[in-house]
């Protein structure tokens, strides 16, 4: 579904991605793990066209989207929940959901609102509350829900567990699995929480300093000694 081939991305003279190649199969959850600053978020942003790859190609369902404007990429069925949530803090929960519904007709909008409220009942309780007054966990729920409002076929999730309490992290990952299984949404997940991510993922990749250094199924990487030593704190 998504094929990234030899992608190099720069910030000025600094090369953040150094020939990254990977694939995300339709219907699967794929995860990219790595330490802070490895280039994981840059890869997701490159997929969405900001920043752009200087070299290499990004294909979505066989279509070259490397140089395509971001709004056209979204129209193809790719949505991103960014690192740091980036919700509209002065808007209500409902208004934030409206902002994500760029591909919806009115009837589809109401259906999608009902679906995200089913996934995140807390948001339904706070539908008229301003986003900036929500807890960190609720803001993360809203960021994911807003992305889902565009009816994506592929959902890019950037550090959805960052800074959240364990109970909220568990709920977020359960929802990720649910939208993959029940709604048939392909998920590409970037995470520092390698244990939860690899347990959930069909396929995983490890990124170090802008390079993919290892790949395999989630189960294979969970038991890999190098991965365990570097990212799983002795396997826990």
From TrEMBL:
UniProt keyword terms in alphabetical order: Amino-acid transport, ATP-binding, Nucleotide-binding, Transport
Record carries keyword DNA damage: no
Family annotation (InterPro entries): AAA+_ATPase, ABC_branched_ATPase_LivF/BraG, ABC_transporter-like_ATP-bd, ABC_transporter-like_CS, BCAA_Transport_ATP-bd_LivF, P-loop_NTPase
Domain ABC transporter intervals: 2-234
GO molecular function: ATP binding
Family, per entry: Belongs to the ABC transporter superfamily.
This protein's name: ABC transporter ATP-binding protein
Organism annotation: Fodinicurvata halophila
């Amino acid at each position: 579904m998504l094929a990234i081939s030899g992608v190099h991305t720069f910030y000025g003279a600094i090369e953040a991605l150094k020939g990254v190649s990977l694939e995300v199969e339709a219907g699967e959850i794929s995860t990219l793990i790595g330490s802070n600053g490895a280039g994981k978020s840059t890869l997701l942003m490159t997929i969405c066209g900001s920043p752009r790859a200087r070299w290499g190609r990004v294909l979505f369902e066989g279509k070259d989207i490397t140089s395509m404007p971001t709004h056209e990429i979204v129209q193809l069925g790719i949505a991103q929940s960014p690192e740091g949530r980036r919700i509209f803090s002065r808007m209500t929960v409902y208004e934030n959901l409206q902002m994500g519904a760029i591909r919806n007709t009115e009837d589809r909008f109401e259906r999608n609102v009902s679906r995200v409220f089913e996934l995140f009942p807390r948001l339904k309780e706070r539908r008229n509350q301003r986003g900036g007054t929500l807890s960190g966990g609720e803001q993360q729920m809203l960021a994911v829900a807003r992305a889902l409002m565009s009816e994506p076929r592929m959902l890019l999730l950037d550090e959805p567990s960052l800074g959240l309490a364990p109970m909220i992290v568990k709920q977020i990952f359960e929802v990720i699995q649910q939208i993959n299984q029940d709604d048939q949404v392909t998920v590409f997940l970037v995470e520092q929480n390698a244990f939860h991510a690899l347990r959930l993922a069909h396929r995983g990749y490890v990124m170090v300093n802008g390079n993919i250094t290892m790949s395999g199924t989630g189960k294979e990487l969970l038991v890999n000694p190098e991965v365990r030593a570097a990212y799983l704190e002795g396997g826990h």
